[in-house]
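Our consortium's second objective concerns turning raw sequence data into structural hypotheses that experimental partners can test. To show how far this objective has progressed, the report includes one record in full. It was chosen at random from the queue rather than selected for favorable results. The single chain below, 91 residues long, was entered without modification.
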Amino acid sequence: MVPPIPAFGGIPAGPELVIILIIFVLLFGVPIVLIAAGVLFLKLRSESEEADADRLAELEAEVERLREKVDDEPGERDPARGGERDGDDRL
């Protein structure tokens, strides 16, 4: 007697293809999305650090300008540098 041969040869169709698609998405899609999200987060973070560096440079320039302004005032002198203060020493 001849053994029976399957009619379709075990080719997946319908629900089996949906299950295979879900497995591929979980295996390959999720890690790719996580990597893309990480790259995007790091890129946005590095851009904000550049903005922070610009703001820091601006604040340092403002502090230097204020120091020069205080040094230029004739009535206020630092006692540590040998000058006398004209005002009250109270805080």
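The partners drew two points from this record. Residues 33-69 form one domain. The mean pLDDT is 80. Both points have been shared with the crystallography group to help prioritize constructs.
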